[in-house]
Hints:
Layout: E1 5-10, E2 15-23, H1 28-38, E3 42-50, E4 56-64, H2 70-78, E5 83-91, E6 94-99, E7 104-105, E8 108-109, H3 115-128, H4 132-152, H5 162-173, E9 177-183, E10 188-194, H6 197-202, H7 211-225, E11 229-235, E12 244-250, H8 256-264
Antiparallel strand pairs: 1-6, 2-4, 2-5, 3-4, 7-8, 9-10, 10-12, 11-12
Helix pairs in contact: 4-7, 4-8
Amino acid sequence: MVRELYLFFGDKNVHLVWLELLIKNADAKAGISNFLAEHNLDLRFDCLVTMEQSQVKYVVYFQIDEISNIEKVANELSTFDTVIDLKWGISKNASFQSYDFPLTFMGERAIITRATTFVDILKIIHEYTTQSNSLLFLSGLKGGKNAAKYFSKATQLDKDNLISTITNLFLDAGWGKLEIDFDFDTLKGHIKVIDSFIADTFGTTELPICSYISGYFSGFFSQVLGVNMYASESVCKSTGNPHCEHNIYQAPHGNIEHLIRGEMT
């Protein structure tokens, strides 16, 4: 069976626009689609959702190269008699890709899994291994580095788009919402993770539980910036806080993986 899936990834030359329209009925879709086609907009995905009182929500995603005329397009659509309400937004440096089975992402085999499945693996590692946090940090470190390498195949990753790329990645993958404050001169920063999938799924713990995500931040930032970066979780939602927080800074001299392995021995 062939399934089409759509995933986001960083691309400096392309932006993703979404429109969410509340329309009077499904027949109004044709007029809106024709309007978008007349403006040469690259429609990638759309869907209709039936609401109450026979109203319909019409969601549209399309790609653009220039942002300047999108507000004009949205304003014109809002004047249509068939449009009751309209919301819109832009994800900069993002695009859609479609895939057939087997699912691949940036040339690598990929899967979709539930958060519970992932966290169950983490729980077993915590229960049956010593130095489990260091082990999970190293796993995240490798994952973050590899992710940055994969994204670099599609676009040039650097300090100009690092923050937006990893923020969109976490949001689109369902990992959490990031708020990042990072100084590229001092290489120090603070990352807030809202609704972390690990903390939300793991449940209540006495100590922070998101060492895998700390490692992921370390690997992603290290790969893009070309220096060894280290992130550590200072606050975790699993311990009763409203969100998770990670501090990130340049690591001491030496390979960060070797340093962590040293802690495990």
